């Protein structure tokens, strides 16, 4: 085991332990070690070296003391003569041993010599030593002293059987020592026995390694124990002479440093006195020069005076700072690929990114470079002139603003798919009407034909051909009187459909008989004339103006016709049974558009261009109610079978629902069609209503009216019915009287039936 | 099992069995077939097996059943869908495919053919929008013309065909009347004989939509747009006697004296809208379908409805048949053919729904002998043959080029149909065992 050489002291202590272990093995072995100790003692420079322990340890070897003393002198003399001649002295020792046994003494010296030679030329050896040096660091720390007796003289245990205590507190018993003869014999047998020394402290035999013996030898020569120790290393001046933050000395600050200088005070008093006397003149500090007008800080946010001046000070909006992608020469990852650019093209314009990063080699090649100055001027101008208003933002979920409507599924049945088409007309179908049972449907077209269709199969049952385009067809609401009223141009026809049974046919024939047309009353003579129609055996009523709309009274006897004429001449009532015509007993303001009989009471609704008036037929006088639609031009009306709710369609695509118990203003206005609404319809029994428009669609709504007066009607859009060709749109729609089906008449000359 | 082919197509061991007679039989050996074959593949396999035994064999389409269900997808998918193990040997029953093999000449009418009836194997009865009923002994040969109606005929029924001598038929018309005709079906067919009604049944207030006869032939029932079902006696009133048929045979247009008028025996009231179709399958039970979205079963004795199924759609046609003649099939104002089983308690949901049509269903008829087969005709111009064992149509007959208004089975293996193209068409050679 070798000890690392850090300084002289440690080496000394290492040697010390060695020297302690030197005691009492054999005389010959101890002698050189003792000599070494002496050498160290002499050559050692450290004043801390404690020679007592050594002497103590030496003292422990009582039995050899005499020999030691005698030999000490010899060795001392030898070293004094020649410090580096340790080897020769050892040789002497060996020779001395050889005096005991002269035969093998030479061998021993040879051995050492050979060792020395090995050391001198063996580079391998050196590397071995280095390794050993490296290892030593940890081994020294790890191996705890076995004997924990402490720093007490070992001779205290001289008479004891133990030498100390191990770490667990057990006694370390002394081993039996070889007697001198045995040790001598052993040294004779083993040439390396001289290396063995006894560690007295731990009471064990230690064999010195080659390195250790070399180290001992170097020490004997007065050299540093390790060969690689450089005693003349360059001096490194670790102290920095530059100023350090902490004082080098920790001495307290002297008192003088805190006491004002009397001399200085005297000098100040002197100066003050002189200034007072005017002997010394002091310059007044110069005032700062007045600056020009202070610039108005336009963007200096939240200056207090600005806040005070204006009640609503609006801080300028904070803009997002430009990022890398807005650079004129962004890095490649910001540049969109061709595919991405193509995908931008497909995007909706508002969703498209505002800025697509592009690369320019230099600023000057940016297209905006030319206008940069002008633009920045304009920007400044904009900032200067822009009016700013406070925008109130409300954070509301847009979904929550939608009215809570029941699901469409729960509102079935309603018409949604077209299965049947009624084809045969050659012109746009302008008007349709179903009979009261729902077995037949009549239609009028611009080609001048009126047709009756079988609803179930789509078969055309009857055709009447006229010269003029048909404006309006209306089936008599009475099932016992299957008569069709047809309006075209200035004429109104009553046609016998011949669908009733024989008795009904008799009644109709009697009614249509040409002979019994009475003379018209003078009041209406200028407006209408009753004629008999030869062609189809019906009755023809010629009006003084073109008819725009007709409506049957629910009892099937009265029919109102509307002409575009003011005052009392615009609407006339025909009575079929008496073949009489009468004017309305009141004046109508504006040009009437269409009329509608109340489904149960004797009221009539007259729609003019902008509003709807309700008149009582039994009382003369003013309108009982005026409904303000707020629409530009009314096109059609339909009334809920309950009679309290009216639907009005307008030519601007709006539809109004009036609850007449509620107000004269619309309860709901639905803006659904982009083009004119041509007609509106309400189902007789199902809670459905519909509108059709020139945009060739028909909308179906759920419109439930509750008996409870406190509950407002429920309106739910259900379905958009498409199918008619775009050109011309849908001109009329009617519900089937008993099924939740909707008939639509298109300008494409087809009537469609939409079923549930 | 071969390992290489496993990922491409697994092989199944199947055994073909049949209830068909000898020329159709194949040896009862199990064969290994790829699992991805469809009906067509199976059919060609069976055909080739038969052909190996019988060189004169003509290829014949087959249909295949596994556990009573028709295969309408690849075998693999079928087994997966039904959860049948592919490990054991499968037993596949094959039947002759139900599909028309031959199309007869169309029989042209003067107007839309609104009604056809094939309940008598001797002739086909048709009704037409020109108000005439026609009797066809075969395709293209009209033996009798039944005249007298002033409106379109909406429905025809054979009242009594068992009598070899004369046959009684009933026609319903949109002129609110029904007429009963008698004629000799075995008469020579050189030229069509004109027949006038021996009895006119008046009483409906609106168009009569449907007529159906009791099995015994004593009574007919009719349904109408006036929401009622009327029952009528078919026997001649006593005064006329047996001479009337003779008179009719001579009789031309002046047969007014020979005609008797009948009045409704009973009226069944309950429907709230047009009763579009009636059938009278048993002695005292009448089924009716109406536009008020209901199917009702009437007890003739009491005149009350004993069953009321709500459908949700306006119905155009009804027929009763199938297993135990108890299933109700009805179609109407949507493309779905529905089949109810009224024996199932507590539910009014249909047990089968067939929805391959694309427009209103105008007619549906059960096959008279098979429990599984029925046909449906639709305004989309198609007639579809259905098997209850699969949700796909067995066969689609697309011979009409306009709406099909009526269709029926004839002689068990023909489908007759009339439509808005004014033709009576006969699709024959349908093999239903």
TrEMBL record, chain A:
InterPro entries per record: BOP1/Erb1 (IPR028598), BOP1_N_dom (IPR012953), WD40/YVTN_repeat-like_dom_sf (IPR015943), WD40_repeat_CS (IPR019775), WD40_repeat_dom_sf (IPR036322), WD40_rpt (IPR001680)
Entries under Gene3D superfamilies matching the protein: YVTN repeat-like/Quinoprotein amine dehydrogenase
Protein's cellular compartments: Nucleus, Nucleolus; Nucleus, Nucleoplasm
Comp. bias intervals (Basic and acidic residues): 7-19
Predominant subcellular localization, coarse grouping: nucleus
WD repeats: 422-463
Keyword RNA-binding: no
Keyword hit for Iron: no
PROSITE patterns: WD_REPEATS_1 (PS00678), WD_REPEATS_2 (PS50082), WD_REPEATS_REGION (PS50294)
Ranges for domain BOP1 N-terminal: 157-415
Composition-biased stretches (Acidic residues): 35-51, 61-92, 100-142
Region annotation (Disordered) ranges: 1-155
Keywords, sorted A to Z: Nucleus, Repeat, Ribosome biogenesis, rRNA processing, WD repeat
UniProt superkingdom: Eukaryota
Function description: Required for maturation of ribosomal RNAs and formation of the large ribosomal subunit.
Protein name: Ribosome biogenesis protein BOP1 homolog
Organism: Camelina sativa (False flax)
Name of the encoding gene: LOC104792893
From TrEMBL, chain B:
Organism for this UniProt entry: Camelina sativa (False flax)
Pfam families: NLE (PF08154), WD40 (PF00400)
Family indicated by similarity: Belongs to the WD repeat WDR12/YTM1 family.
CDD domains the record matches: WD40
Highest taxon of the lineage: Eukaryota
Protein name: Ribosome biogenesis protein WDR12 homolog
SMART domains: WD40
Annotated WD repeat ranges: 201-242, 268-308, 354-390
Keywords, ordered alphabetically: Nucleus, Repeat, Ribosome biogenesis, rRNA processing, WD repeat
Keyword Repeat included in the entry's annotation: yes
InterPro entries, per the entry: NLE (IPR012972), WD40/YVTN_repeat-like_dom_sf (IPR015943), WD40_PAC1 (IPR020472), WD40_repeat_CS (IPR019775), WD40_repeat_dom_sf (IPR036322), WD40_rpt (IPR001680), WDR12/Ytm1 (IPR028599)
Known function: Required for maturation of ribosomal RNAs and formation of the large ribosomal subunit.
Record-annotated NLE domain positions: 13-79
Predominant location: nucleus
């Amino acid at each position: 085991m070798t000890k690392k050489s850090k300084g002289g002291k440690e080496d000394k202590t290492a040697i010390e332990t060695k020297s302690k272990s030197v005691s009492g093995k054999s005389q010959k072995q101890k002698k050189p070690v003792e000599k070494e100790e002496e050498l160290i003692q002499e050559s050692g420079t450290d004043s801390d070296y404690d020679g007592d322990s050594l002497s103590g340890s030496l003292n422990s070897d009582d039995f050899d003391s005499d020999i030691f003393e005698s030999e000490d002198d010899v060795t001392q003399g030898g070293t004094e003569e020649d410090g580096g001649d340790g080897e020769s002295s050892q040789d002497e020792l060996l020779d001395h041993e050889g005096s005991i046994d002269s035969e093998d003494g030479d061998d021993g010296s040879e051995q050492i010599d050979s060792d020395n030679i090995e050391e001198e030329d063996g580079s391998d050896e050196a590397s071995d030593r280095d390794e050993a040096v490296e290892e030593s660091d940890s081994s020294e720390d790890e191996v705890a002293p076995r004997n924990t007796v402490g720093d007490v003289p070992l001779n205290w245990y001289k008479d004891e059987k133990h030498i100390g205590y191990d770490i667990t507190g057990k006694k370390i018993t002394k081993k039996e020592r070889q007697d001198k003869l045995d040790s001598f014999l052993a040294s004779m047998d083993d040439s390396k026995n001289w290396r063995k020394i006894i560690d007295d402290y731990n009471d064990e035999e230690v064999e010195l390694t080659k390195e250790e013996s070399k180290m001992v030898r170097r020490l004997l020569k007065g050299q540093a124990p390790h060969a690689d120790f450089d005693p003349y290393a360059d001096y490194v001046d670790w102290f920095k002479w530059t100023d350090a933050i902490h004082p080098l000395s920790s001495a307290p600050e002297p008192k003088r440093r805190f006491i004002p200088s009397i001399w200085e005070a005297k000098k100040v008093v002197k100066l003050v006195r002189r200034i007072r006397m005017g002997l010394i003149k002091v310059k007044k500090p110069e005032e700062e020069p007045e600056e020009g007008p202070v610039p108005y800080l336009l963007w200096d946010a939240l200056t207090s005076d600005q806040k005070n001046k204006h009640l609503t000070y609006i801080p300028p909006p904070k803009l997002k700072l430009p990022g890398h992608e807005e650079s004129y020469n962004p890095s490649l990852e910001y540049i969109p690929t061709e595919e991405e650019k193509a995908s931008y093209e497909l995007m909706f314009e508002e969703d498209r990114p505002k800025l697509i990063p592009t690369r320019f080699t230099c600023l000057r090649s940016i297209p905006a470079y030319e206008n940069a100055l002008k633009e920045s001027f304009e920007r400044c101008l904009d900032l200067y002139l822009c009016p700013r208003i406070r925008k109130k933002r409300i954070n509301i979920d847009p979904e929550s603003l939608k009215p809570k409507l029941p699901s469409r599924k729960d509102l079935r049945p309603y018409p949604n798919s077209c299965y049947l088409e009624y084809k045969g007309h050659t012109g746009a179908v302008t008007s349709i009407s179903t009979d009261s049972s729902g077995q037949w449907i009549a239609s009028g077209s611009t080609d001048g034909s009126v047709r009756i269709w079988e609803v179930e199969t789509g078969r055309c049952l009857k055709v009447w051909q006229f010269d003029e385009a048909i404006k309006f067809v209306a089936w008599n609401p009475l099932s016992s009187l299957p008569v069709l009223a047809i309006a075209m141009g200035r004429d109104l026809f009553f046609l016998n459909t011949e669908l009733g049974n024989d008795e009904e046919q008799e009644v109709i024939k009697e009614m249509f008989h040409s002979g019994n047309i009475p003379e018209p009353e003078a009041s209406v003579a200028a407006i209408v004339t009753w004629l008999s129609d030869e062609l189809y055996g019906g009755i023809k009523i010629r009006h003084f103006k073109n008819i725009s709309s007709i409506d049957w009274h629910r009892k099937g006897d009265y029919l109102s016709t509307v002409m575009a004429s003011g005052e009392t001449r615009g609407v006339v009532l025909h009575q079929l049974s008496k073949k009489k015509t009468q004017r309305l007993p009141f004046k109508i303001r504006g040009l009437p558009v269409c009329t509608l009989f109340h489904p149960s009471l004797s009221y009539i609704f007259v729609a003019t261009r902008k509003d709807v008036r309700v008149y009582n037929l039994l009382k003369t006088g003013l309108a009982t109610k005026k409904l303000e639609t707020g629409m530009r031009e009314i096109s059609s009306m339909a009334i809920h079978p309950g009679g309290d709710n009216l639907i009005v369609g307008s030519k601007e695509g709006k539809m109004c629902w009036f609850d007449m118990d509620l107000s004269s203003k619309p309860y709901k206005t639905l803006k659904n069609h982009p083009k004119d609404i041509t007609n509106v319809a309400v189902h007789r029994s199902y809670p459905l209503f519909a509108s059709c428009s020139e945009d060739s669609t028909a909308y179906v709504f759920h419109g439930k009216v509750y008996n409870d007066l406190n509950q407002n009607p429920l309106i739910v859009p259900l379905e958009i019915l498409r199918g008619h060709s775009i050109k011309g749109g849908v001109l009329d729609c009617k519900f089937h009287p008993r099924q939740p089906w909707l008939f639509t008449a298109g300008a494409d000359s087809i009537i469609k039936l939409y079923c549930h | 099992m071969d390992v290489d082919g496993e990922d491409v197509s697994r092989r199944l061991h199947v055994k073909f069995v049949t209830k068909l007679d000898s020329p159709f039989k194949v040896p009862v050996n199990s064969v290994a077939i790829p699992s991805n074959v469809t009906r067509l593949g199976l059919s060609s396999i069976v055909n080739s097996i038969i052909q190996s035994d019988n060189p004169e064999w003509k290829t014949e389409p087959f249909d295949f059943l596994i556990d009573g269900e028709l295969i309408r997808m690849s075998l693999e998918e079928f087994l997966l869908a039904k959860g049948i193990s592919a490990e054991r040997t499968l037993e596949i029953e094959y039947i002759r495919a139900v599909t028309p093999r031959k199309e007869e000449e169309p029989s042209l009418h003067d107007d839309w053919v609104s009604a056809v009836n094939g309940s008598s194997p001797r002739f086909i009865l048709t009704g037409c929008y020109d108000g005439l009923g026609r009797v066809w002994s075969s395709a293209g040969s009209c033996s009798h013309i039944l005249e007298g109606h002033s409106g379109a005929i909406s429905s025809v029924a054979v009242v009594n065909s068992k009598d070899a001598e004369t046959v009684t038929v009933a026609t319903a018309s949109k002129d609110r009347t029904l007429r009963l005709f008698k004629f000799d079906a075995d008469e020579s067919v050189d030229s069509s004989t004109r027949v006038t009604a021996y009895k006119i049944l008046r009483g409906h207030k609106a168009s009569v939509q449907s007529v159906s006869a009791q099995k015994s032939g004593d009574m007919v029932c009719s349904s109408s747009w006036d929401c009622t079902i009327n029952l009528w006696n078919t026997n001649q009133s006593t005064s006329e006697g047996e001479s009337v048929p003779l008179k009719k045979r001579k009789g031309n247009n002046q047969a007014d004296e020979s005609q008797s008028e009948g009045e409704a025996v009973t009226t069944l009231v309950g429907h709230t809208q047009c009763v579009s179709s009636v059938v009278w399958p048993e002695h005292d039970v009448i089924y009716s379908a109406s536009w008020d979205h209901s199917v009702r079963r009437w007890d003739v004795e009491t005149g009350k409805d004993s069953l009321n199924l709500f459908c949700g759609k306006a119905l155009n046609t009804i027929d009763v048949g199938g297993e135990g003649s108890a299933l109700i099939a009805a179609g109407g104002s949507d493309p779905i053919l529905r089949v109810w089983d009224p024996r199932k308690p507590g539910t009014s949901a249909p047990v089968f729904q067939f929805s391959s049509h694309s427009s209103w269903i105008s007619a549906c008829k059960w096959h008279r002998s098979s429990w599984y087969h029925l046909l449906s005709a639709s305004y989309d111009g198609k007639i579809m043959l259905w098997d209850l064992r699969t949700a796909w149509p067995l066969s689609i007959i697309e011979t009409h080029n306009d709406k099909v208004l009526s269709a029926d089975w004839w002689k068990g293996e023909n489908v007759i149909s009339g439509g808005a193209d004014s033709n009576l068409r006969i699709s024959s050679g349908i093999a239903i065992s």
